[in-house]
Amino acid sequence: MRVDDFDYELPERLIAQAPLAARDASRLMVLVRDERRIEHRHFGDLPSYLSPGDVLVLNDTRVIPARLRATRPTGGRVEILLLQPRGGDVWECLARPGRRAQVGQTLTFADGRMIGHVLSKTEYGGRVVEFRATEGETVDAVVDAIGEMPVPHYIKRRLEQSERYQTVYARERGSAAAPTAGLHFTPELLGQIERAGVAIARVTLHVGLGTFRPVKTERVEEHVMHAEHYEVSEATADVINSARSAGGRVVAVGTTTVRTLESAAGGGGGGGGGGGGGRAGGGG
Question: Nearest 5°: phi and psi at 5?
Fold first, then answer.
């Protein structure tokens, strides 16, 4: 399958630069597959498309302010994007421009509030960096204080409210980007869905490099997917399997949830048996 089969034109004027006041006021396109037609609704209408016995599956990852600005020993500037934890305070990162973050260098953040030692390069051109807070804080606390949300490149406006780039159900810290399909839910809408007899289950997939890495191959099959960490609890697996056994539908919110369920099912995990975790092929 050719990558350019998926090309389409998207005028810049149609890309919203700021969120609506009400999350669920966003527009919703519904494909009625059996009738091969499209309906144009609003996201708040979603409950009318769900039925008792269905299960709605959400990705509860929480975005970290992963974009950091650093100073090199020479005084030059470099941007560091946190992608995936390696354990402790060691992270896989992207450096922009990469040539400015050489192995062995020590980077300084926020006038010395935190430093980062560049340990090695990765196979995809990233860097492995070990961070250390210098003023008695934790690295997470410093990142939360000085980092910026890594919004998509097509959003030109500065993000004024960082919580608008989180889902209302985000709780597991670790993503470098939001699972955007879930941004339109409100607590009230989720409550309405549950009261209608629809179960809500949660998985966790931390969005990583695949979201930022362009597809450069001519054919889809040639693209190498970057792995992302996911978790499917036994409780979530039980809810999903019970719904399927009873004839209910499993409604996955967004591509991150879809690839979590596909990976778990393919590996004998959450979608087909008990709970578990692993590494899923990332977006791109």
Answer: -65, -20
